[in-house]
Specification:
Layout: E1 13-16, H1 22-32, E2 36-41, H2 62-67, E3 71-75, H3 81-91, E4 96-99, H4 105-108, E5 124-129, H5 144-150, H6 153-156, H7 171-196, E6 203-208, H8 209-214, H9 220-227, E7 244-248, E8 254-258, H10 262-271, H11 275-278, H12 286-291, H13 293-304, H14 309-318, E9 323-325, H15 329-333, H16 336-340, E10 344-349, E11 352-357, H17 381-387, H18 393-401
Parallel strand pairs: 1-2, 1-4, 2-3, 4-5, 5-6
Antiparallel strand pairs: 7-8, 8-9, 10-11
């Protein structure tokens, strides 16, 4: 007897029409927590992310093995009316549509949310784009690089005397994917509440990459509106909080130290052999420390430069000063705390097995999990068309012959 799936999204069907990062990242998270993810891909090469970055011996991206897990791949040619008609039928059988085409594309194909207002009033239509579904920039192509800049992140990231810096990640895309998940969950809650009152309540979830970045910008808006201040890049520090920085040690390694609490600052400076600064009334609170940031950082630097990173971290940990090493992925995967927290999962791979990251948050009663590895392109086309749309084997074969699926 099959074990009952008690994950929070079990029973929810999601049709993923997106590709690359933002939409598929949302689908990956929803699938991890129990949703059935039906991923529509174009025949031939499928989602481009299958072939991005480092590839395995078969030419498949290692990234795909992570972001594609728990999904069912269906190949449908959306450039044909027959293909679009199949998608319309699928939309009417799912709870959530997740798409990240340029705004207007689905409307042009007769697949926009208005198409399903009458046939599926409880549908949650989740749209991820660069600049949103409305506004003067809505039709502009939205890549994370440009949207991170437009959303304000790139302006504050980097050093004052250098160009804005991009982290070596698709940060904006991932943030948009997480916002899409939040939107889907909120819409599902709203629909459940409406259902309890005998109503049908679907809605459109409009997520943009630039707004997902903007949503992370903390106090920059009120600081400018109320105080006229434009937050500028500050290197490895953070404006208005001292000390918190990255410090070089004598073995060439860097450590992060956050000593900005009043009592923590005293313990930090005692570790650094600067009891005089620990008791200096000028530095007793954050306001004073901000005024003397350079003096404080120079003192800490002189201390760390005389010791190894391991020695510095050991001293600070004993003094209960927040600190940490700068980890690479190799460091993460060899760290016992990462292992103890279950942050890696093993999936099947042609070469044996492959470790992929677990998806957070961790739920103690209804945890998420990786049920199946990322699928081969079109691996579930027959299953989905027959089980959900009740297509016969002959009809499916005819569609294949016509290169519609």
């Amino acid at each position: 007897m099959d074990k009952v799936d008690n994950r929070p999204l079990a029973g929810i069907k999601v049709l993923e029409l997106g590709q690359l990062v933002a939409g598929p990242q949302a689908g990956c998270i929803l699938g991890y927590f129990g949703a059935e993810i039906i991923k529509v891909e174009s025949p031939g090469k499928g989602d481009p992310i299958r072939h991005w970055r480092l590839l395995d011996e078969d030419g498949t991206s290692y990234w795909w093995h992570s972001i594609g897990r728990n999904k069912k791949s269906v190949t449908i040619n959306l450039k044909t009316e027959a293909g679009r008609d199949i998608v319309r039928q699928l939309v009417n059988e799912v709870d959530v549509v997740l798409e990240n085409f340029r705004p207007g594309t689905l409307e042009k194909w007769g697949l926009g949310p208005e198409t399903f207002k009458e046939s599926h009033p409880s549908l949650i239509f989740t749209r991820v784009s660069g600049y949103g579904q409305t506004g003067p920039l809505a039709s502009r192509p939205g890549y994370a690089s440009a949207c991170e800049a437009f959303g304000g992140f790139r302006h504050v990231n980097g050093f004052a005397d250098g160009p804005p810096v991009r982290p070596n990640l698709s940060l904006g895309d991932t943030l948009a994917g997480m916002h899409a998940v939040i939107g889907v969950l909120l819409a599902l809650l709203a629909r459940k509440s409406a259902d309890s009152k005998g109503k049908s309540n679907g809605q459109v979830v409009d997520v943009s990459i630039f707004e997902s970045v903007f949503n992370m910008m903390e106090a920059v808006v009120p600081e400018y509106s109320g105080g006229g201040q434009i937050r500028e890049p500050s290197g490895s520090t953070i404006t208005g909080i001292v000390p918190t920085n990255t410090y070089l040690c004598d073995d060439g390694k860097y450590v992060v130290i956050g000593g900005n609490g009043d009592s923590i600052f005293k313990r930090l400076m005692c570790c650094a052999g600067r009891e005089d600064m620990a008791e200096d009334s000028r530095l007793a609170d954050n306001t004073g420390r901000v005024k003397h940031e350079q003096e404080i950082d120079e003192a800490i630097c002189r201390w760390t430069e005389q010791h190894s990173a391991a020695s510095v971290l050991q001293s600070l940990e004993q003094a209960e000063v927040p600190c940490g090493p700068i980890y690479s992925v190799a460091d993460m995967m060899n760290d016992p705390h990462y292992r103890a927290r279950g942050l890696f999962e093993t999936v099947a791979h042609r070469e044996g097995t492959l470790e992929v990251p677990a998806i957070l948050p961790r739920l103690n009663e209804t945890p998420g999990r990786t049920d199946q590895p990322a699928p081969e392109l079109g691996a579930h086309t027959d299953e989905i068309l027959s089980d959900i749309l009740d297509f016969s084997a002959d009809k499916i074969q005819a569609l294949k012959n016509e290169k519609i699926v």
